[in-house]
Specification:
about 15% strand, about 270 residues, 7 helices
Length: about 270
């Protein structure tokens, strides 16, 4: 590639639109020292597959795109990413907001479809698998289908707490796991909700700890077990202020203290 010129424009209250110099970082020696002490096992590192990422990478020529994937996923070079995330439906890095079933009242998920993902996420993931076929994937939704929410919108709101809705949403997760498995992409873990404490301007959904507990215990967990899905159910990905003990008391401890729910929850995920 040719030389890339970078322009840095800074805007503050006192100095709007100020042009600043961009300095190249100088290489430095590696200062990491290993003591030999071992604590917990880290299974891997990675990032999140998003539509915008694939859209940008698709603009590169083949050689440059291959270099990016090699640097990210090759297990002998670069970042060696091996533990990656993907959204269940739209997230804040999607090109448009969508779900896998926007057909009101389709409780049986007869019109469930990942056709949109076949254009963006699935090719992105399969390209990464060419460099590391053993990537482990976990997934979480930013929002359920809009007809399952109040108000009916991708952003803001919460899940309608109705038995038919809860059964349908558990089925939605199972259909997602099976649809991706049919594409050769094994979903190892499902995190029930991304940031359940945040009511965002982008796709989101609020959950209380009691709701997560009931949904996993009475709907999602039993459905996965009845259908012999070995995809793990995780409590997460939970967000909130670290200094606020209510995050633990009202979510993690509340859910894990229920012995029935504990049969299904395999891990807790935090942001």
């Amino acid at each position: 590639m040719g030389e890339v010129k970078v322009q840095w424009v800074s805007t503050t209250e006192k100095t709007p639109w100020e042009n600043l110099n961009v300095a190249c970082a100088e290489p430095s020696a590696d200062t990491l020292e290993l003591s030999g002490e071992k604590y917990q096992y880290i299974e891997g590192f990675g990032g999140c597959f998003n539509e915008q990422g694939w859209d940008v990478l698709s603009a590169l020529d083949q050689n440059e795109r291959d270099k990016v994937f090699e640097e990210l996923f090759h297990m002998e070079k670069g970042c060696k990413f091996n533990y990656c995330r993907l959204p269940v439906g739209a997230n804040d890095y999607s090109l448009e907001w969508y779900s896998y079933n926007e057909n009101d009242g389709d409780y049986e998920m007869e019109k469930f479809s990942i056709d949109r993902d076949l254009k963006y996420l699935v090719p992105y993931i399969k390209k990464a698998q060419e460099y590391n076929p053993d990537i482990k994937f976990f997934a979480s939704p930013w929002s359920p289908p809009t007809w399952m929410k109040y108000p009916k919108a991708y952003n803001y709101g919460t899940l309608i707490w109705d038995k038919k809705i809860l059964e349908a949403y558990a089925l939605y997760f199972m259909k997602f796991v099976k649809a991706y498995e049919a594409q050769g992409i094994k979903i190892s873990q499902i995190h029930v909700q991304n940031e359940p404490l945040c009511d965002q301007k982008f796709p989101s959904c609020l959950w209380k700890g009691e709701q997560l507990n009931e949904f996993i215990r009475d709907y999602m967990g039993p459905l996965f077990r009845e259908n012999n899905l070995d995809t793990e159910i995780c409590l997460g990905t939970i967000n909130g202020p670290e200094e606020d003990n209510r995050l633990y008391d009202n979510y993690v401890n509340l859910v894990l203290s229920d012995p029935e729910t504990g049969k299904y929850v395999k891990a807790v995920g935090f942001l």
